[in-house]
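Example record

The entry below shows one chain as it appears in the dataset: sequence first, then structure tokens.
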Amino acid sequence: QVQLAESGGGLVQAGGSLRLSCVVSGSIFSINAMGWYRQAPGREREVVAFIGFDRKTHYGDFVKGRFAISRDYAKNTVYLQMNDLKPEDTAVYYCNADVQDGLTLNNYWGQGTQVTVSS
């Protein structure tokens, strides 16, 4: 059993910053890619950023240098530093990870953390 637990969401004014964290726990042999997605009301879930085991990163086009993803291998944790937040960044942010929890590689999601940016 593998669990993903996000934290760090909240309410912030436009131009402010938040740092999201996601800890992966449970029966873990290794973690490949880790990432963040978001879903705003009435919209489809979209990629915010992900980071591979080799630390290669990918960002959604809307990020435009405002966010930075990183990971701590020892803590099985992925972070998302979000700066210069805009009202359109308001969404539920979900952590995602590809975890080898035995013989198979499975994809897991967290429960989500709300980020609200006021204008």
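Notes for this example: The chain is about 0% helix and 60% strand. The chain has a mean pLDDT of 96.
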